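Before the break, one more example. Copy the sequence into your notebook; we will annotate it together after we see the structure.
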Amino acid sequence: MSEPISTPGPTATPGPTTASGPAGPADLRARAAQLDAADALAGLRDRFSLPEGVVYLDGNSLGALPAAVADRTADVVTREWGELLIRSWDESAWWTAPERIGDKLAPLVGAAPGQVVVGDSTSVNLFKALVGAARLAQAARPGRTRMLVDAATFPTDGYIAASAARMTGLTVTPVDPSHAGDAMDADTAVVLLNHVDYRTGRLHDLAGLTAAARAAGAVVVWDLCHSAGALPVGLDEHGVDLAVGCTYKYLNGGPGAPAYLYIADRHQAAFDSPLPGWNGHAEPFAMTPGYVPADGARRGRVGTPDILSMLALESALDAWDGVCVEAVRAKSLALTDFFLACVAEYVPPGRVESVTPVRHAHRGSQVSLRTENAREVMAELIARGVVGDFRAPDVLRFGFTPLYVGFADAERAARTLGHIFG
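Here is what the structure looks like once it is written out:
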C-alpha cells in the first residue's frame, strides 16, 4: 500500500523549518552536516573503498568494497594458492572456512555459534532449507499438505518453493506476509517469508510470525537477504527454525559472495538435506558409498567451498568489528527519515510517492519511490553521481547502508532527484 511521503508518521523525523516556512536547501545541508558531525558511526566509512564524488545508495543490491579485502584477496591468490598450493586446505584453514565464517557472521543475525554454515548461493540454500523443513514437518506431523509462500517474494524464492513443494508432496499457497499468521492452520507444514520486501522495503514481523508458525505446528524459513546487516534479526531469540541469506548486500561480501544457511540447534540432528554432498559427510575423505551426515550445521555443506570468494567475505566481515547492530538500525531509521523529509522538500508535489512504510516498525533500510519513467529517472540520477536502482515497472530504490552512507549523502540524493523533476 502506497504512503504519501509528505505525511510523516509519529516516529518519523520531519524536515527542518525556518520562521518563514519549510526549510530551504541551505537549511537541509546544514542539518545534514550537523547530523553527520554527531554520528558515532561516521568513522566506519573509512573502512570502505568508495569512488570520490559518488553517493552510493545501492548497497541493498551490492555492498561497497571493504578496504581490507583487496590485500587479503591478493594474499590468498599469490601466497595461499600460489605458494602453498594444496597445503592451504590445512595450513591456511581453507577446509574449515564455511563453519568459521558462519560463526563470524552469526552475531549479525542473532545466532549462537554452530548454527550458520556459509557456502553455495541463496537459491541453493533455500532449496536445502525448504525441502529440509518439509521433511522435518512431515516427520513430526504427517499428513500436512500446504507450504505458505510470501506472495510478493523475490521470484527465485517462488521458483525454488514450487520445486521443493513438488518434491515433497506439498501445495504452494501464496500469502500476504502481513496476514500470514491468519493463514497458518493444522494443514500448514512449511512457511517461507521474507524479512524485508525487496521492492518496497517493508519490514515484516519476524517474531510474531515465527510464534504463529510455531503455534500452528509449522516449520518456518526466513529469507534475510534484505535485512541481515541492516537491522537486528534475532534468530535464536525468536525461535526461528531455518533461515537463509546472501552476503553481498548489507554484509558487503562482494559480487557472487557465498550465501549462508541457519539451522537452529534443536533441528540439526534431524535436518535431512536434499543435497547430500561429500562436504556434508561425517567423514568426507573416507569416500564411502553410503552417505552419513556430519553433525551440526556442517551437514548443510554440499560441494567444495568457493575459497576465493569465501575468504574475501571473511575479510569483509572485519568491517563489522566493534559495531553494534542496534546502533546501525538507529542510524538507518534516522537516514531514511531524513531522506524522506528532504524528498518532500525538494521534489515537486505529486511527482513521487513512497511505497516504503512510514512507521519504523514496518521499515527496512531502503526507501522505494514510485514515479513515472522510473528507469529513465534512475539513469539520470546515476549520470549525476547518485547510484540507486530501478525495479519494474515504476519504482526507484535507494538503499541506506549505515556503515558508509551519511546524512549529506541522503540530502544530495534528494536534491538531485528534485533537480531532475524541476
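The chain has twelve helices and 17 strands. Residues 41 and 323 are 8 Å apart (CA to CA). Try to locate both features in your own notes.
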